[in-house]
Amino acid sequence: MTGKLTQLWTTKTKDDEWWSSFVTAPLGILANYAAVEVQWITPNRITAASFVVAVVATFGILFGGTACFIAAALLIHLSHILDCMDGQMARYRRVSSPEGSYYDRLTDQVQVTLWFGAAGYAAHVQTASVVPVFLAMVGIAFYGLRGYAKYVAFEIETTRDPDYPKDMACLKQVETAAGLGFGLRANWTWFLREQRKVFAFDEGVFIFMLSAAFVFDQLIPMLWIFAASQLFWGTYKSWLRGKNIGEKQKRALPK
């Protein structure tokens, strides 16, 4: 048991997002303890299941009401646990593929749009105001800008330097600093350091934000936080990537 669990733990993304890092990813590992030996359960089928659950959660948000909101919160978490499981299983079985990674990331983007779009609509129904819809739209747009700016910058840098993807892959390598085989102090230190990631306001934070907002029926404050955080990070990261491209261009120019 310990050997299998240890091997599964090595499949966990070493630089996971905030809530994923110490909640949904570990739960995914526990679920995979049984699932990885079932041959008809494949990473791509888990990706598809994660998306289906996300869509069902969206309908729960649209229907509204306390029961549906709580059900949606639980389903959002289930969807994210499955989202963690597919990559873990692929790495455990050594069947990771670019195609699987593509669809995994694509569905992640769509899920965020569905959830926050539905949350904006639900808040509009509660308040009869268009402000929640606008906040959801701003948050979704600037969250999408974060990914789009990264893609454009990556394409430009790769065109200029074919070795750029390989160099970036080396920079992203993170050493395992906690988990099975590490002591209590190491794991506690890692846990405390992970809390800084909450300020990144990425998908892992969204899972927590949405769930808490639905359980406590606080959609408007959550949408304000979502819109403001994505407006900041989308603008800042887009500017920073452009700045880095400009600086590299200047260094490349002959004197």
What is the CATH first-level class name?
Mainly Alpha
Main beta-sheet strand count, sense and barrel state: none
Average pLDDT confidence is 91
- Give the N-to-C terminal Cα separation: 62 Å
What characteristic shape results from the CA principal axes?
globular
Count of DSSP-assigned helices? 10
Name of the CATH architecture: Up-down Bundle
Structural class: mainly alpha
How many structural domains are formed by the residues?
A: 1
The total count of strands amounts to 0
Beta-strand percentage range: under 5%
Helices and strands, in N-to-C order?
A: HHHHHHHHHH
Low-confidence runs (pLDDT<50, min 5 residues)? Answer: none
Task: Indicate the CATH topology.
Answer: Four Helix Bundle (Hemerythrin (Met), subunit A)
Radius of gyration: 20 Å
Q: What is the CATH H-level superfamily?
A: CDP-alcohol phosphotransferase transmembrane (TM) domain
Helix-residue proportion: over 70%
Descriptive account of the structure:
The structure is a single chain. The chain has 255 residues and is an all-alpha fold. It has a single domain (2-252), classed as Four Helix Bundle (Hemerythrin (Met), subunit A). It is 79% helix and 0% strand. Helix 2 packs across helix 9, helix 3 packs parallel to helix 5 (98-127) and helix 4 packs antiparallel against helix 9 (203-215).
